[in-house]
């Protein structure tokens, strides 16, 4: 949210468009921030609640009402191992590319200004902002990494990996263990408006 609030052209957008863009991009921006700050994380498989926990919390009997997780997928913090691996693969890709602070800023701009989101009033302006983010990234790469003609393509591939990461997975993995089940809509509104 701090990044978003400091982008001048974002603040010029109508408030409705700002909210739509934040709602659609918060998870990708968070994961990009993790990559930029080189934050790694570990997960452990969650243990099934004991019979006493089930009785006290009113959880259903596992054998009668809940299907077991697929053994090949594994589950940690209620998130499938496949989803965790996708996030870790994205982080590793970014770290392998040794993305600079400027490149991260351009990538965040490309994520934030997503013209594919439904309900935007300033669609053409947002399309131009996305285009500018890509152009600025490409120009920066050509200037700084002249010897690597494939770097821009590699950064776009990393961006496509990021788009495959699901916001509910990010919320489940990074917010639920800390503050419990949350309505991300309320959290975003509170952070965005400082309520």
Automatic annotation (TrEMBL):
Keywords: Cytoplasm, DNA-binding, Metal-binding, Nucleus, Receptor, Repressor, Transcription, Transcription regulation, Zinc, Zinc-finger. One of its GO terms (cellular component) is cytoplasm. InterPro entries: NHR-like_dom_sf (IPR035500), NR0B1/2 (IPR033544), Nucl_hrmn_rcpt_lig-bd (IPR000536), Nuclear_hrmn_rcpt (IPR001723). GO terms for molecular function: DNA binding; transcription corepressor activity; zinc ion binding. PROSITE patterns: NR_LBD. Residues 1-195 form the NR LBD domain. This is DAX1. SMART domains: HOLI. GO terms for biological process: negative regulation of transcription by RNA polymerase II. The keyword DNA-binding applies. It is found in: Cytoplasm; Nucleus. Its main location: cytoplasm. Belongs to the nuclear hormone receptor family. NR0 subfamily. Coiled coil: none annotated.
């Amino acid at each position: 949210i701090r990044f978003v609030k400091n982008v001048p052209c974002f603040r010029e957008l109508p408030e409705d468009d700002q909210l739509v863009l934040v709602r659609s991009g918060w998870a990708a921006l968070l994961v990009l921030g993790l990559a930029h700050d080189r934050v790694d994380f570990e997960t452990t498989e969650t243990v099934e609640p004991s019979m006493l926990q089930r009785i006290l919390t009113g959880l259903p009997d596992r054998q009668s009402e809940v299907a077991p997780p697929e053994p090949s997928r594994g589950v940690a913090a209620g998130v499938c191992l496949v989803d965790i691996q996708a996030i870790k693969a994205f982080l590793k890709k970014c770290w392998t590319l040794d993305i600079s602070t400027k490149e991260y800023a351009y990538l965040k701009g490309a994520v934030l200004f997503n013209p594919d989101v439904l309900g935007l009033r300033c669609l053409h302006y947002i399309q131009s902002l996305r285009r500018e983010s890509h152009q600025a990234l490409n120009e920066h790469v050509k200037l700084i990494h002249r010897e690597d003609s494939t770097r821009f393509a590699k950064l776009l591939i990393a961006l496509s990996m990021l788009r495959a990461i699901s916001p509910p997975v990010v919320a489940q993995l990074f917010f639920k263990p800390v503050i419990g089940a949350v309505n991300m809509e309320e959290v975003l509104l509170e952070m965005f408006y400082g309520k």
